[in-house]
Amino acid sequence: MENNYQLSRIHNYVMGLMSKDEMYAIEREALQDPFLQDAIDGYKMQQGVDGKQLSILQQRLARRVATQAIEKNSRFHGWQRLTVALAAAVLFVVACSLVFFNFITSPQEKKTEVILMEQQLRVRSHALAENDAIPEVGWAQFNEELNSEVRDLLSKEDLTVRFNIENGLATEVDVTGASSSEVAHLIRDFIQDKIKWEGTRGEVRIEVIAKE
Amino acid sequence: MDEKELLTYYKDTGDLNALGKLYSPYMSLLYGVCYKYLQDEAQSQDAVMQIFEELIVKLRGHEVANFKSWLYVYARNYCLMQLRKEKKVTKVDIENNQYESEWQLSQSDDKDWTEGDFEKLESCLQTLNNGQEACVRLFYLEQKCYKDIADMTGFDLNKVKSFIQNGKRNLKICMEKK
Fold first, then answer.
1. Both A133 and A190 in a single domain?
2. Hey, are the CB atoms on A65 and B17 less than 8 Å from each other?
C-alpha cells in the first residue's frame, strides 16, 4: 500500500500534477532519501510511471517465487536419485574390492591342474599284411592317443581300417567291423585328422577292450 | 511480519515467499533507479529481477541492518556494474554518490537547536556560493518547491536540485567545524 502511494506520488510529481506544498514535501523527503531521489530521476527520464510495466514485474516476481516449490520437489527427487546412486556406488566398490583382494591373494595358493588320464590302455593295434604305414608318433603313442579318443566308448570293438597315404595324410579311410557307424566315424576321423603317417598303404586291426 | 522479521526468517529458512514479500514493495522504486542508470525499459526490468536473484543468495549469508538503504546501494552498484560491463559512459553526479553515505548519518540528527546553532547557521549560509545560498534559503527557510525556486532564480530544475544538495552538504560540514 505504501508502495502504491509512493508510486502515485512519484507519478504526480513527475507529471506536474501536484500542488506546490506536495511538491515541496516530496522534494524534502527525497533530499533525505537518495533511493526515492534516484527513482524520481528515473521516472522523470521515462516521463512518467507505467503501471503496466510494474505489474509485469510483479508477475515475474510471483512466478519466480512460485518456482521454488517446483525446484524443491526436483531437488527432493535429486536427493533420492543421489542416494540410490550412492548405494550403488558403495556396492560397486565393495564388489570391486572383493574381486581385487581375491585376485591379489590367489597367487599365493598353488594352482593345481588335474589332467585325468585313462588309467588303463584299452586299445591294441596290429598291422596287417598289406600294411606299410607307420604313425609318425610311433605305434605306442598312437595307441595312447586312440585310447583317450575312445574314452567315452563303452563297447568292445574289433575293427579293421584300410587307407591310402598321400603327403603324410590318410585318405580313402575305410572302417569295417565297427559296432556302430558312430564308432566307425570316430575312428575314421582320428586316423584321418589326428595322425600323420609314413608309408603308402595302411591296413590295421584295432581292438578296443570293453569298459567296465 | 515486519521487514526485520522477514529478513531473519528468510535468512534462516531460505523461503522465497518471505523474500518476495520483502522485495515486492521496493520494485517500483528499484525500477526507477535502474531506469535512471540503464535508460532502457527492458534492461531495467531485467535488472530488477536479476537483483532479486542475487539477493536470494546474498541475504542468506549477510546480516542486513537497514534493508532499504542496503538494497538501494546494492541496486545502484548493480546498475553501475552493468554499465561498466557494457562500457557505456554515463554521467553519474558525484554529489549523489556522496550524499547517499551521508544519508544514514543525517537520520540520527534530531537534536535540539540552541541560539548559538542558529547563529552558526546564518554565518555558514554566507560561506556558500551565491547559487547554493539562494537555493538553500528558498528551499529550507521559505519552503519553496524546486519549480518555484527555478522560476524565481532563473536556474533550471536540475541546477536547483544540485545547488540544494551541495549547499546542504557544505552547510553541514561548516556547522560541524564550528
1. yes
2. yes
Residues 63-102 of B with CB under 8 A from A: 68-69, 71-72, 76, 96, 99-100
Nearest to A143 by CA among A127, A164, A128, A165: A127
User: Is B80 contained in some domain?
Assistant: yes
Residue A135 in contact with residue A195, Cβ under 8 Å? yes
Q: Which of A62, A68, A41 is nearest to B15 (CA)?
A: A68
The answer to whether the CB atoms of B29 and A53 lie below 8 A apart is: no
- Which residues in chain B come in under a pLDDT of 70? 88-111, 178
Q: Is the pLDDT of residue A107 over 60?
A: no
Residue B60 belongs to what domain range? 3-92
Which one of A1, A6, A33, A35 would you mutate to disrupt binding with B, by most B Cβ within 10 Å of its Cβ? Answer: A35
* Tens digit of each residue's pLDDT (9 = 90 or more) over B9-38: 998 888 889 999 999 999 999 999 999 999
Q: How far apart are CA A183 and CA A177, in angstroms?
A: 10
Please state the ipTM of this predicted complex.
0.79
- Check residue B78 and give its pLDDT: 93
Both A145 and A68 in one domain: the answer is no
Could you tell me if B31 lies within 8 Å of chain A, comparing CB atoms? yes
Q: Are residues A17 and A44 in the same domain?
A: yes
* Whether the predicted pLDDT of A101 surpasses 60: yes
Count the domains in chain B. Answer: 2
CATH number of the domain bearing residue B41: 1.10.1740.10
